[in-house]
Write a structure and sequence with these properties.
Elements lengths: L1 E5 L16 H15 L5 E5 L8 H12 L5 E4 L6 H7 L13 E5 L2 E5 L14 H12 L6 E4 L10 H4 L6 H8 L6 E6 L6 E5 L2 E5 L6 E2 L13 E2 L4 E8 L2 E8 L16
Parallel strand pairs: 1-2, 2-3, 5-6, 6-7, 7-9
Antiparallel strand pairs: 1-12, 4-5, 8-9, 10-11, 12-13
Length: 269
Amino acid sequence: MKLLQITDTHVPAAGKLIYGVDARARLEACVDDINAHHPDADWCIVTGDLVNHGGEDEYENLRPVLDRLAVPLRVLPGNHDDRGALRRHFPATPHDADGHVQSIIDTDEGRLVFIDTLDPGRSSGILCDRRLAWIRERLDESANAPVYLFLHHPPLAVGIEYMDGIALRNGEALWQAIAPHARRIRLMAFGHVHRPISGLWHGVPFACCPSTVHQVSLDLASHPEPRLDFNLEPPCYAIYRIERDTLVAHQQRYSENWKTFPRVGVRGT
């Protein structure tokens, strides 16, 4: 199975830029790269912050770009999204009984679980009791199948002080919900932090994918006042290749400055 992850696309209304960057053009280049090199992928998951302010005009600017994907699509909300507008513009997106954009997909390689961490009006995320109960139910019913979790907000501190302050506020509650099944969870993939990050959380492998627009500068220091700096490191999407006992994660930078060229006349690498 091959899964793709796009995150934090932050598409604004038509004609607008974000920090001098054309976010729609960068997403179009991402879609072009996927269609050229990974049309065989099973799913592409967009893990939130699809648009920049949750506006209807922003989703209208976004939708035609994602419609060009040659790969089946599943979208999740981030803190910049509006749940109602997202569902109106992506009406095929499943949701739970309470309207949260949560769903599952069962595959030959295991169960994909899509989790809605949006807390409207706040940059940080939350999982209410109903969403936590839904997660427990979906894991309980999936027997011994491997599990892959997708969400927007990280449930753990990644060491970037400002971003840790706007992560999932009740990450420990998520852990309690998934802990009985931790040995089956092969990957937890999220966005929000705009950085390439990977590691283990309570023994669960996780991966954070960079944005297709701008990145958060890597700053592991503590500051007396809240501080967040951005930069224009290359845009990126993730590729997860999954076999029975193996998961390999790639992060593909696709901007115009990253052209390939053949190796000629040199020994070794």
